[in-house]
Structure formats: C-alpha cells, structure tokens
Amino acid sequence: MVIGDVIPVCSPVESNNGPSLPKLSNQYSTSIEASILQKSYTQDVEEFYDEPGNRGSFRTVKSGEETFKIYDYDTDELYTVVGRSIGPGFYTEDDLPQCTIQRISSSPDLLPFGYEIIDGTPHIRHVNDILQVGTKFPEEYLGTEEIRGIPTNHWGACINDSESSSFYVDYYFTVPGYTTAYGSDEIPVRVTVNGTRENINASGTHHFENIYEFAFFRPSTNYNPYIFETPRGVYCEGRKEFNLTNPLPIIPGDIRMRIEIVSPNSRRIENTNAWFSETLKLVKYEHTAVLARTDLGYDVGDPVSEIHDYTTGVAYVKNARVGTCVVLPIANTSYEAVPTDPSHVRMRTAQELFFGLTDMNYEYKGKKLIRNILTDVWIGKGTETVQDQRFDSTLEWFFTAENWTENFVATDAVPIRMDIRSTPETGILEPLHFVLSIYEFRASIDDFAVFDVSSCFAENQKKILQFQVPGENIGYISHSPTLFLKSTQIAIAESSGVSFGRVANVMYDYSNVKVYVTFTLLDKAPIDGDLYNMTTNELSLVEAVNSLESSINKGDLIISMEVNDKKFEFIAVPFSLRSDVVFPPDFPFQGDTNVCDPQESRIEKPLPTLYESYQVYMEAKFVNEPAYMVEGVMYFDTLSLRSSIFAYSTSGMFQTISDLRESILMAAALQFHMSYHRIYKHFLNQTKTNNCLV
C-alpha cells in the first residue's frame, strides 16, 4: 500500500499481548533533548502541558536562538516569541525578542499540541494523543531495556497518520516502582521516531530519524507561574483577551506614593516620595540628591524637595539641609510636565502620568508575581517626543489583582511596578530602561501642608492673618482636624482669589466658644512661569487680602466639611480678620475658665517631684460629641532640656518635639491636630494659676 508518494515503513499492529503504555498526567512539564539526525543538529526543548487550563507552551533553543510558543485555546491564540536568550526566558534589555500572534484554528495540525473540538469549543488535544499513543495507534509491548542506566519498559507503534508520512515510534518508560526525581511512576525516558515524510516545498519524500531524551519530568505545571505568559517587556500586537474583559485601571486625581527608581544601564538606584494633585495642580517630589546642582543650590546627599505649581508654571526647589530655595520655571523635562512648545508646559493628568501621552496600543498580558504580590499586567507600545527626540517606547504596568488589601484596607487596583523601555529612533542616544517600584500608594492626599512654599518668599511677600469662626461644632473639628484644615485652606484660597498654593501654614486653635484660624497668605509668584495657555493674571498680596476681607465681612467665607455623612458649614465671623497676630496662635480660652474655687483648695502636701528623665503613657477620653479617645506617650529629659509627645487617635498620629537648648519647637502633624496638647496646656495653666490642688 502506498500513502500518497510515501511508501509505508511499517504496518500497524493488530493487538498488544503485553502491558499497555502508561497514562500521562493531564498536567506535566518536561525537558527534552531533541536530536534531528537527518539534519545533523540538536535542540533543547521545554514542554508544558495543562489540559485542565486548556493551554500549553513549548520552548526550543537552537543555535542560540530561542523560540517560545504559547497555545491559549480559550482565546484561540498562538503566541510565538523569537529572540536570542541568555537563559530560558531571559533576554538582554537591548535585544528583546519579537512576538507574533496567529489563530490556532487557522492551522489545526500545529505541533506539539494540535487542535480538536470538544462540545463545540476549541480544546488542546488529549494527553495520550500528544505522544501519538492510544486506541488510534495501537502499540505492542517489546520487553524491558536499559536506557541511560535507567530500567525501562519498551513499546513500539506504527503510525500512518496521513497521506504525507509513515513512521515507527519506540517509547521507553521507567518500569513500575522505579524511584524518580519528582516521585512520579512510569514516566517517559526516551522516544525515537524513524520514517518517511513528503517534502514540504518540493516533490518527493525524505527519510527522517529523531531521538528525544526526556528529563526533569514533573506531573504538574503549578511550580512556575510564567510558563504560559509572554516574557516581561515583550509586546504582542493583536492580543484578543484585552478587548474582552481587562481595561486599564483608572488612576485617581490626587495620589501620593514612594518610588524606587532603578536604572539598570547606569546601575543606579534612587528613591523619591511623590505627591500629585490633579485637582489643585500641584506636584511635589522629595529625594536625596545623587548629583550636585549648584544652579539649584544643592550638593550630593542633600535632602531636596521640589514643588511644581501648575497654576503659575513655577517650580520651587528647597534644600532642607541649608534652608535655601531656588525659584524657576517648571522644566519641560520634569516627569509630570508635557512640553506644549519650546517655551511652555502643561501638567499631565493622573492617567497620563502612569500610561503615557500617546495613543498607545495597550494589551492585557495576564498575571505575574511581583514582590510576592499577585498582579495584573498590561503592556503598551508607542512613540513619544522628549526634547525634540522621538523614542519608541514600551511600557509595562503591574497592579494588584483582585482581593488584595494594603494596610488591612481593601483597595482597587494599586500600582506596584512600572517598567519603561525607550529606544531613540535616530541619533546616538543609548536605549533607556527604568524600573519603578511603587510603595505606600494612597489614592488621596490628606496633608496638603506638604505643598508649603512660604519659606521661598521674603517677609514683605507674605502676610500672617487670622479670623474666627463660631465654635458650636468644635467636636467635629477635633474629630477630623486634617479635613478641617484642608477645607479651610480651599475656602481661604477661593475667597482671596488666589491659588491653593498661596495659602500656607494653616492652623487653628479654639476656646469653648470660638475657633481661631491662623494662616499665611503669600504674594504672587516671584517670577513668571512657563505655563501653557495661562489666561488670568495673579492678584497681588494687597489685592488678595482686600478680597479676603471683603468676603469675610459679607459672610461669604464658608468652610464646608462632611463628617460621618453629616455636612457642616463654618462661616467666618464678619469683621474678624486681623493681622496683629503671633504665629503660632496662643490665645487664652474665652468665657468662664474657672474649674474650681481656689479658696476651697486643700493643699495638705506639695506635689511629688518627678524624675529628671522619664516616659509616661497617657490616655485622654473626650466625652463631647463626637466622643473619641486619644492615647499618647511622653518622653521628658531635664538634663538635655528635651521632650517629645506622641499622640494617637482614630484620625492619625501627632508628634511634638521640644528642644529648649535651641529654643525650637517642632510639630509634625499627620491627620491630627493639637486638641490634646491644648486641653493639657489649659489644665496645667489652671492648676498653676488657681492653685486648685487638693
């Protein structure tokens, strides 16, 4: 019998009187050394088969070139990634592989996994068909044989599979009970194929003989999460899955985060704290200088903060070590800046900050573990122009997958990492590669004092002011002090007709009947910025003060805030604006402050003398609405003239540090105001003044 132009090399067996071929696991992975004798070459192969997941992958390396194929039957996609690797799945950044996609259904005879329809849907071929065994091609048992020193059972099968080939296959599996590396019984050790096949691009036939040596056989694919995913940094145009269920995450307008920036090419690591407020058009970076910039007033190792005000187009660069501040237009090379022309910039949106400016082709890649965090991964490819140089860029984003929490709080997709790879289209510039790891991401900015630039203004360019609001709802202010300060800063800016950044150092103090709000109002920016399409002129300091005073006197300065789903409005007391204040405020309590009658005090013995150095735990309970509790720890050292107080509540943490040697009082507030300190001070004043000791 002749099969097409092929003369059969064997005849199928009719029956098998010995044991049957072992059944393979429906999930497995194995390494194979494939020797193609008729072409005189050997290639290394890694094969991963996952019938429950309806997928498989196949990696081959020949002459230093790696081909990685991923078969995704659920989406009918075959990914082919080709490049010169430095190890299985690893590539150099300047020589990333190329990826193409084709439909599995367009070539159903693709090896090694083939294609079949089960219940009307595409599916990977059954595991027994992968090695061309089973009832379709009966085998015969040929006894035992030692292969590579391993005792094996030997089977043979004749396969006349189509009109194009005829070949004989020898299978060698470990004998039952033989101990294997991963504990599996009866695993493949060798497969040989010997036969005849039609030529593909010419008439006639050719003989072929292949030997496949199996090693590292495992009955699982779960140990490696990446074997069914394209390599990192590789873009595959035309992914089908992205268009189905996985749009890009939405980035909130106000965010803060800590970023570790790694530049592998230059072997440099930088760390930056960043705040980005699309709402208020403000950006801040805090970092330690890695390069000296005499023009910006800092040296290597100096703590530097940069505040970019996109209402004016002005940047403020502050050196915390020496207290200097340099004011200049926002550079068009700033990460968040978008050059609109050679002389002007605009601010990126939060979405552009992460996902770039161009109409990139974004695709969903799947899931990967980053820092042991399960992430959803997207990749995009496009071009951007930076300083008149066009770059071909590939960006890859990693966001937390579903059901992850951060600091015990359930969150939406949180950015974990971003990889940026850019290659210049022309010129001598080297390709760029940056890895941004993101920590402590927050979808809000609670403390807007981080944008304070008052130290960059001379004394005649700022004015300290104060006004009053009624104190009927002081309990809600004390409960949410950060919200009150933010709402107050917004209200002052609106009433003054200035940007949010020109209102600084907002504080409040209170008695039992009034709240005293003290703040600094800044003059307009010291220089002209380079903001694109800026249509309004800034008010001068005098004009801003007049506008604010008029608004207060008319009862138009309204501070709005919402606490526990209740909305509260605090209206500034008309004609209460004053400039003869001391900063920070230290006004006495108003009304009846007597808590006892000094004539009735019974001082039988003096107060105990405290230790020269001590620490003490304190607890304060506030019973006025809304009731809450504050806990704190005080550290006091008479010998060094220093003290420190940490106070904690549901709103956050507050710390005060007093150093009497330098006459310095430092206060760092994180969502907490000096309510406790004020009441504690009031108590001390009363006991000292009235001698109400019993």
Short summary:
The chain is mainly beta.
Write up this protein:
With 694 residues, the chain is mainly β. The protein is built from seven helices and 38 strands. Strand 9 and strand 10 (150-159) form a beta hairpin. The chain is elongated.
**What is the top-level CATH class of the largest domain?**
Mainly Beta
**What would you say the CATH architecture of the largest domain is?**
Clam
Q: Gyration radius, to the nearest Å?
A: 37 Å
How much of the polypeptide forms β-strand, as a percent range? 35-45%
Dominant shape:
elongated
Number of helices: 7
Largest sheet: 11 strands, antiparallel
Low-confidence region ranges: 583-595, 663-694
- Helix proportion: under 10%
Number of domains: 4
Q: Name the average pLDDT.
A: 80
- Quick one: how many beta strands? 38
Secondary-structure content class: mainly beta
Q: Report strand order across the widest sheet.
A: 6-5-4-3-2-1-13-12-11-10-9
- Distance between the terminal alpha carbons, to the nearest Å? 119 Å
CATH overall fold name of the largest domain: outer membrane lipoprotein receptor (LolB), chain A
